[in-house]
């Protein structure tokens, strides 16, 4: 009897996984996420937010990717990043320009980024 683990491989995500993770998030996750559906968000709307989350999560060993063994296809991922009480120690690849985003993306940003200032 085979188990689920016999069909998939799990490993730490690396920066080389970024293109596949970004595409998966923009084509699969964004269409399945209840927040995105409720806010009628598109790939273009959330591209920078997803890229920011992803790039800030791939510099250490906490994020993971899951591949199907038979096809080698990315079938899942979990992105983790670390925030420090002293924000000068945080790893930030680029500043997320929340002010330039549309209202619905700002709502989504505020769900994920409690420290982001709210602007209308």
From TrEMBL:
- Show the InterPro entries listed in the entry: Acyl_CoA_acyltransferase
Please list the GO terms describing molecular function. Answer: N-acetyltransferase activity
The domain of life for this entry's organism is Eukaryota
Q: What is this protein called?
A: Uncharacterized protein
Instruction: Please spell out the taxonomic lineage of the organism that makes this protein.
Output: Eukaryota, Metazoa, Ecdysozoa, Nematoda, Chromadorea
